[in-house]
Amino acid sequence: MAQRTQWEFLDDRGRLASAPHTPSRLITYIQAGAALFDQGLLPAGLFGSAHDGAGPDPAKAGDLPLDGVPYLGSGPGVDGDIVLAVGPDLVVAVTYGSDQVYGLDPDTAKYLEERVPLVVLDVGQGRSLDEVRDRFGALARSLGADPEPPAGSALAAARARLRAAADRAVGARVLALSPAGPDSVHIARPDAWPDLRALCRYGVGTAAPEPGAGVNWSTTDWAAARRLEPDVVLADVRSNAFPLERLCGVADWDVIESRARLLPWNPELPPSAAAHARFFDEVAEALEAAEPSS
Questions:
Q1: Residue 175: exposed, middle, or buried by beta-carbon count in 10 A (0-12, 13-18, 19+)?
Q2: What is the pLDDT of residues 3-28, one digit of tens each?
Q3: CATH among 1.10.3210.10, 3.40.50.300, 3.40.50.1980, 1.10.1740.10 for 152-289
């Protein structure tokens, strides 16, 4: 009798997930599913976070074909038995630097992990963008994906373009934010986000809020955002962010919009070469057209 091959993967909690065969029916957090799809692996189902609604958030989905992948709920609305009914042989989730499984109620995560292998990868501020991408690449390869990322050359070209654009746009400031409403805004702390730290690494100047409360964000008013005088604004377009079009008439936002180039921003960027190349290219293009204020 032939010996069965054991699949194993050590996740970022230090837990070893194992199966008697290589998993092929993956249920994933939507960000993880988008990254794995970029490497040729189509999830059998998706779930979102407590910030999401009854349907998948297109801003988080990358290139996932949402009409062809079942959506199993979000946050506390994810039912473990409904997930199991899809017949998964692996669940893939993310964490932000702890053992907590993001997007699942702790009891649901425990219930699932007792019945099916669970891999949790860290996408938090303790990891660089390259490290996060490499971990998803390692998982994808263990599941049978091509060893060479499909967009590896595109990523290298995008990095070079971003460096060159940053060198030419000395003094330009990139501000990342998430609109909270007409009276308030969450301004991202660049050091807290792997994608924003990567911009700094390639020479991009970023605008940061004042020190204070909030690890990832500084929640303040639009006047504080205006005073940062951004040349490029990365604006959160996830479904939980306040829509930009509803800010029309907010005086400080109108000033920002009149002087800065606006880019849609997904703070939950899929950790793949394709998504990272696209992000770097978009920021490079904006910097190429920006006129630094100083």
A1: buried
A2: 455 999 999 999 999 999 999 999 99
A3: 3.40.50.1980
Tokens (6 digits) for 133: 């991408």
Instruction: Sketch the domain layout of the chain as residue ranges.
Output: 7-142, 152-289
Tokens of 293: 């204020």
pLDDT in tens, 123-149: 999 999 999 999 999 999 999 998 876
Q: pLDDT at position 1, please?
A: 42
Query: Which of 221, 293, 220, 208 lies closest to 258, judged by CA?
Result: 293
The answer, as to whether pTM is greater than 0.90, is: yes
What is the arrangement of strands in the sheet containing 184-188, beginning at the earlier edge strand? 217-220, 184-188, 174-181, 232-236, 261-265
Interval 206-217: pLDDT, tens = 999 999 888 899
